[in-house]
Amino acid sequence: MTCEELSACVNAQQDGVVIALFVQPRASKNSLCGLQGEELKVRLTSPPVEGAANKLCCTFFAKLLGVSKSSVTLIRGDKSRHKQIVVEGVSLDEVKQRLAKAF
């Protein structure tokens, strides 16, 4: 996966970098799977019950991007597979490079 391909799902805003996600819960392991439309597909081990998948999603991306857990916030899609998170404290280019290395 290249940084240019990630441009469809990763955008800069004034409060941080926004990443559009398609989340598949109850997977065998946490992983990035590629692009699905204009969203980054991510598989998570947690079930979609009582916000567990949302919490794991933020924790997974914090670790993946090398930022604190409090720097990653779910901003859209609390009860949907289509989610958006915002990452604070890193630039757009850093996020794209770190995501590209994770594949």
From TrEMBL:
InterPro entries hit by this protein: DUF167, YggU-like_sf
SMART domains listed in its UniProt record: DUF167 (SM01152)
Any single GO CC term annotated in Swiss-Prot or TrEMBL for this entry: cytoplasm
NCBIfam families named among the record's database cross-references: DUF167 family protein
Protein family membership: Belongs to the UPF0235 family.
Listed name of the protein: UPF0235 protein Dace_1230
Species of origin: Desulfuromonas acetoxidans (strain DSM 684 / 11070)
